[in-house]
Write a structure and sequence with these properties.
The protein is an all-beta fold. Helix content is about 0%, strand content about 55%. It is globular and about 50 Å long. About 15% of the residues are buried.
């Protein structure tokens, strides 16, 4: 049972990265659904083109429970961010840019705060 003072009204699917190597030695990454976790989402920046070919894509700040810390790593991708009613906010794929561990009064990890953004490069299956 999750012991925290935070509420986690949103859900997101966590997809785990696996790398396969072909007979020719080419490596290809694929992502498979690992689990769906509860999160708290705060809005981030919207998409815009700042100058020339430089563009900023949508980003979010997500708070995860300490029990999900094994899933919140840079290799994994997130998809289908939903609100409490099950309405999809963002289809994804989303990638983790930054993970910050927040400690509680006891000194143990209480929750994680991650900066999430849309995947900028790769295929639709990423």
């Amino acid at each position: 049972m999750k012991q925290t003072y935070l509420t986690f009204p949103n859900t997101v699917e966590v997809h785990t990265k696996t790398i396969t190597t072909s007979a020719a030695g080419q490596r290809k990454a694929s992502f498979t659904l690992n689990s769906t976790v509860n999160v708290r989402v705060q809005s981030g920046s919207g998409s815009r083109t700042t100058s020339g070919y430089i563009s900023e894509v949508d980003s979010y700040t997500m708070t995860f429970s300490h029990e999900d810390k094994a899933l919140i790593i840079y290799d994994n991708r997130l998809k289908n961010l939903k609100d409490r009613d099950g309405t999809v906010i963002e289809v994804g794929p989303l990638e983790i840019l930054n993970v910050e561990k927040k400690l509680g009064i006891s000194g143990k990890i209480n929750h994680l705060v991650a900066q999430i953004t849309k995947v900028k490069e790769g295929s639709e299956n990423d």
